[in-house]
Design a protein that fits this description.
By secondary structure, the chain is α/β, with parallel strands linked by helices. The chain has six helices and 15 strands. A seven-stranded mixed beta sheet has the order 10-9-8-7-11-12-15, sandwiched between helices. Strands 4-3-6-1-2-5 form a six-stranded antiparallel beta sheet. It starts with 7 loop residues before the first strand and ends in a 9-residue tail after the last strand. Bound molecules: flavin-adenine dinucleotide and FE2/S2 (inorganic) cluster (FES).
């Protein structure tokens, strides 16, 4: 009988510090996935944790994870070196509904380390740019230092993705916005009858929905959220990830905004 918990191994090809607490790991392995699907990545003796895939779904040679050092598993992964191996299960979950998004204006909202699934979605949009209307990324972080993958963001801007960056604590040289300001609305020109939103990162999401997406005229049914709740098994066995009557690992991590339990933990 197949052991569902048996992982594969992936070799670390590159490690890059993206901020004081977040590292990008490039893993030499082919992974077929949809943006917002996740893997269970682990280190022997420390366990596993779910991480969204951050690279292009069209990349066949490797895939990227961006991992914030917050606890047991992420800290063990942060201590690894180039050439070491980590364990991988997956990809799991549903991913963003790419067919439904087709032809529409898209507003993406992300906070801090919620950027990986959005980064992967943007790479997908850029590869299929003519199939989509106007595309916006609203990305907020505590400080400018916490804005990840700045070089990639610049490239996206050149590929017809309108980028709006905000920080909570601006430094004197900061040229973007401060906080999740309603001011951003005037920068966004969409057809609300044919637009969707894609979000990741629980903390600032409620605020973004109330201050930006609802005033833009987007109904909850067209706001897709990748929900990063605690998980263990990733395959519907342990009940750690329930939200209402759904499992984030099986039914999600992407839900309509009106489907999710708003008690973020
Ligand atoms: C679908 C999905 C995708 C995700 N994608 C990403 C991603 O791309 N990048 C990323 O960095 N994260 C991502 N996460 C979040 C990541 O899986 C969690 O942060 C995970 O808990 C990290 O595991 P850990 O063992 O390192 O931390 P944990 O040990 O689980 O700690 C996580 C948090 O719990 C707190 N904590 C730990 N132990 C205790 C305790 N005993 N008492 C009180 N508090 C405690 C820690 O301080 C920390 O804030 C994702 C989660 C999901 C569900
Ligand atoms: S993580 Fe075990 S049921 Fe979802």
């Amino acid at each position: 009988m197949k052991n569902l918990y048996q992982p594969n191994f992936a070799k670390i090809e590159k490690i890059e510090a993206l901020s004081p607490s977040v590292k990008l790991l490039r893993l030499r392995k082919r992974l077929n996935f949809i943006p917002a699907q996740f893997v269970l990545a682990g280190v022997w003796g420390y366990g596993e944790a779910p991480f969204g895939v951050a690279s292009s779904p069209y990349e066949k040679r490797y895939f990227d994870l961006m991992i914030r050092d917050v606890g047991m598993v992420s800290s063990a992964i942060h201590s690894l070196k180039k050439g070491d191996e980590i364990t991988i299960r997956g990809p799991y979950g549903n991913g963003f509904p790419l067919e439904f998004l087709k032809g529409k204006d898209v507003v993406m909202v992300s906070g801090g380390c919620g950027i990986p699934p959005i980064a992967s979605l943007i790479e997908y949009f850029i590869k299929n740019r003519k199939n989509f209307g106007r595309i916006y990324l609203l990305y907020g972080a505590a400080t400018s230092e916490d804005i990840l993958i700045k070089d990639k963001i610049k490239q996206w801007g050149k590929a017809d993705v309108k980028i709006l960056l905000t920080v909570d604590k601006p430094t004197s040289d900061w040229q973007g916005y401060t906080g999740f300001v309603t001011e951003l609305i005037k920068e966004i020109k969409i057809n609300p009858l044919d637009a969707v939103a894609a979000m990741c990162g629980p903390g600032p999401m409620t605020s973004a929905v109330e201050k930006i997406l609802r005033p833009l005229g987007l109904p909850d049914r067209r706001i897709f959220v990748s929900d990063e709740r605690k998980m263990h098994c990733g395959i519907g066995k342990c009940q750690h990830c329930t939200t209402g009557d759904k499992y984030v690992c099986l039914d999600g991590p992407v839900f309509n905004y009106d489907q999710i339990d708003k008690n973020w933990d």
